[in-house]
């Protein structure tokens, strides 16, 4: 799948290959030291620049909702 | 506000779901997803926190074009926590464009099924809210229908990726089944067409009788009501 910035595609795929390998063979088996953090850093720098150039709302995408009081809850009765 | 909830069973263990979760795009049902990026990743204890940014195409309904600019792309942010202790994947997804028209928030919790260690359950909840004066209800209704359709496609796409990774033979048999079903469907349609043509020929043959019956029925009906109306007018 392509990145939001075409110039980031190569960095993205390099990071993804590293991450997918570590995720299934490392993280899920309890090895939590992430060997892909350097690749992620360069990929992220590229993505941030692309997001800014495309005027996408970076602040909103950095805001946490999951695990905070901003999360919606199930209504008491369906509407 | 429109609320939606639905549980989906996946015939795959939790670990396989977790691996496929990061490989779910692209798939044959995700044609509207244009780009995908991980914009945050962090391991805290036994939990992996991530944020995935997706851009998707979004059609705007004709009737809403009066107050909405025609937007063809919308950004979606998916926050997720993969927890090794509880064996859960929790996702919270929301649109980060078009919020002044509508917000769609969805929470999914994937966990191992209580019935079998070889399957998992996804508890999905969604909230659709619009604050556009006078149109809120129509927008919510429209978005709700679209969400249900997209949500079913998302499940189909995820299952496709799971099968591709873990049971490729099932994917081949799915394809064959699909081809057989398509063949059966074509045969059924041909049969129906032949049947309807035969029926039409029979009906055309009987047309004078049908016409006579209709005229008779209408006459009786009008006669009866005519009398009733006359009686009503007299009284």
Q: Which oligomeric form is depicted? A: heterodimer
Whole-number count of domains of chain B: 2
At CATH level 3, the topology of the largest domain in chain B is Alpha-D-Glucose-1,6-Bisphosphate, Chain A, domain 4
Name the structural class of chain B.
alpha+beta
Cα Rg of chain B: 28 Å
Q: How would you sum up the global shape of chain A?
A: flat
Strand order of the largest sheet of chain B: 1-7-6-5-4-3-2
Tally of alpha and pi helices of chain B: 4
Query: Which stretches of chain B are low in confidence, meaning pLDDT under 50 for 5 or more residues running?
Result: 206-235
Structural class of chain A comes to mainly alpha
Number of strand segments of chain B: 7
Helix content of chain B: 40-55%
CATH class of the largest domain in chain B: Alpha Beta
> Which two chains have the most extensive interface, and how many residues on each?
A-B, 38 and 43 residues
CATH architecture of the largest domain in chain B: 2-Layer Sandwich
Identify the notable features of this structure and list them briefly.
heterodimer; A: 79 residues; mainly alpha; 3 helices; 49% helix; B: 235 residues; alpha+beta; Alpha-D-Glucose-1,6-Bisphosphate, Chain A, domain 4; 2 domains; 4 helices; 45% helix
């Amino acid at each position: 799948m392509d990145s939001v910035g075409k110039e980031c595609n190569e960095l993205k795929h390099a990071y993804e290959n590293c991450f997918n390998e570590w995720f299934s063979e490392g993280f899920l088996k309890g090895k939590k030291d992430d060997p892909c953090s350097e690749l992620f850093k360069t990929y992220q720098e590229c993505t941030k620049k692309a997001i800014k150039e495309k005027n996408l709302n970076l602040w909103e995408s950095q805001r946490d909702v999951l695990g905070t009081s901003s999360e919606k809850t199930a209504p008491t009765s369906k509407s | 506000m429109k609320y939606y909830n639905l549980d989906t069973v996946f015939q795959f263990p939790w670990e396989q779901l977790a691996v496929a979760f990061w490989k779910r795009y692209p798939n044959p049902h995700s044609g509207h997803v244009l780009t995908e990026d991980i914009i945050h990743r962090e391991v805290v204890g036994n939990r992996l926190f991530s944020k995935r940014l997706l851009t998707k195409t979004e059609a705007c309904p004709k009737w809403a074009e009066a107050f909405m600019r025609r937007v063809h792309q919308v950004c979606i942010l998916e926050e997720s926590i993969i927890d090794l202790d509880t064996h859960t994947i929790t996702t919270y997804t929301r649109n980060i464009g078009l919020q002044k028209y509508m917000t769609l928030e969805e929470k999914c919790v994937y966990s191992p099924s209580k019935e079998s260690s070889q399957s998992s359950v996804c508890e999905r909840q969604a909230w659709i809210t619009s604050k556009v004066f006078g149109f809120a209800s129509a927008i919510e209704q429209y978005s709700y229908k679209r969400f249900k359709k997209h949500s079913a496609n998302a499940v189909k796409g995820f299952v496709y990726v799971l099968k591709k990774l873990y049971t490729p033979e099932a994917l081949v048999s799915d394809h064959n089944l699909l081809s057989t079903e398509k063949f059966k469907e074509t045969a059924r349609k041909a049969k129906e067409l032949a049947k309807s043509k035969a029926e039409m020929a029979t009906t055309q043959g009987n047309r004078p009788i049908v016409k006579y019956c209709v005229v008779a029925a209408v006459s009786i009906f009008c006669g009866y009501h005519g009398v009733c109306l006359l009686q009503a007018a007299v009284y």
